[in-house]
Amino acid sequence: MIKRTICVFLYTSIKTQTVALALKKSAETKFKVSYRTAELYLTIAECLAELNNIDLAKETLIAFTENRYTSSGWDIYKTYVNALSLADLKEEIQEERRREFAIEGQRWNDLRRTTQPELTKEFDGVTYVLEQNDDRYVIPFPNDAIINNPNL
Known about the structure:
Number of helices: 7
C-alpha cells in the first residue's frame, strides 16, 4: 500500500506541477539533488503501471521514447508497446530504465527496489552468488542518519 500511495503522490505532484524543491541558498551541497527528465518519465510510467493505469503508462513510455528512435523505428516501437500486457509493460519499463541509465549506476537500485533477482558472477575462478531477496540487497543507514537518530 505504501508503494501505491507514493506512486499516486509522485504522479499527481509531477503532472500538476506542484512539486516545489526548496533548497537553502548556501555553499552546502550535501543534500541537493537533481533528476534527469528521463528518470521522471520512467518513474511516472512505472508508477502508472503499478496503479494498473495501463493506457496512461503506455502513453508516458511512448512519449518518452519519441526522440530516442528514428521515425520508422519509433513507429515500430510504438506498435510494440501498445500491444503489451500489463506484466510485459512493467518489464519493458524496467528494460528501458536499464538502457537509459546503462552507465549511471542506477541498475543496482532498480534491482533492489523491484525484483531482487539471483545474481551470479565469476571472478578469478570463484563463483559468487547473491541469492534472490538476500539481506545484502538492503543498504545500511548512513552514519549521519544513525548519529542524528540513534533509534534507527
